[in-house]
Design a protein that fits this description.
By secondary structure, the protein is of the alpha+beta class. The protein is about 50% helix and about 20% strand. It contains seven helices and seven strands; from the N terminus they run H-H-E-H-E-E-H-E-E-H-H-H-E-E. The strands form two sheets. A five-stranded mixed beta sheet has the order 2-4-5-7-6. The longest helix has 30 residues. The N and C termini lie far apart (about 50 Å). About 30% of the residues are buried.
């Protein structure tokens, strides 16, 4: 039987689904081991090795989630499983998940939530992937300092601001940030598949994703999503 792009997408989605469960289980047990739930780890080299395995497993989970998102977004008739979503709750969950990675690098994640924020209508699984990819990217390319996540609302939009103290970008490369596998951009050590996926998901929700350099250094990414008009 001749292979079609749709067949390939179905295979990627199926394989990704099959991989996600064991990887998630592995992450859970590794986390419990590192938190001494099965007894204290007294040998520093063993703890270091387990931390490396944990972060490698986390990267695999992120890749699988991106492949699942990509397989959904590549179908001609994308169906968003929309429901009422609390952006505050969703972002907090992602911050909790990524906080160990930030702390391992000596970084601090600061979450600031305005009083007037509201819910939105969206696909909670895909939106979670957006926030994971954006915050993970900020941690990945920040050597020291902090990542500030500021949630606020305008009349029609929820604004998710992610500000880091990382390497930033040259102005001409900012336009390439959410492009797919742009080689000139990858040489600058930022961007790639995860941010490309984030851009597709935000666009599917009729939102906007943009990025700006900040002074004296770092990147400011702004994710705008339509608020739930009750």
């Amino acid at each position: 039987m001749k292979k079609t792009p749709h067949n390939n997408i179905d295979f990627i989605a199926l394989a990704s689904h099959q991989l996600r469960t064991p990887l998630t289980i592995m992450k859970g047990y590794l986390s419990m081991v590192l938190h001494n739930d099965f007894g204290e780890i007294t040998e520093p080299n063993i703890r270091k090795a387990l931390q490396i395995v944990y972060h490698s497993n986390e990267n695999l989970i992120n890749l699988v989630e991106n492949l699942l998102s990509k397989s959904r977004l590549d179908t001609r008739n994308l169906h968003l499983s929309c429901r009422i979503v609390s952006i505050e709750k969703l972002v907090k969950e992602v911050v909790i998940e990524l906080d160990p990675k930030a702390r391992d690098k000596g970084l601090k994640i600061i979450l600031i939530v305005s009083k007037n924020i509201s819910t939105i209508k969206g696909d909670i699984i895909l939106l979670r992937q957006v926030f994971f990819n954006l915050i993970n990217n900020a941690i990945e390319y920040t050597k020291k300092g902090e990542i500030i996540i500021n949630l606020k609302r305008t009349k029609k939009m929820m604004m998710i601001n992610i500000i880091d103290t990382g390497v930033g970008l040259k102005a001409r490369k900012l336009r390439m940030l959410f492009n797919k596998f742009e080689k000139p951009f990858l040489s600058a050590k930022r961007g790639g598949f995860g941010l490309y996926i984030a851009g597709l998901i935000v666009k599917a929700h009729k939102g906007k994703l943009s990025a700006y350099n900040r002074k004296p250094q770092g990147l400011h990414v702004v994710c705008q999503l339509p608020v739930d008009q009750k």
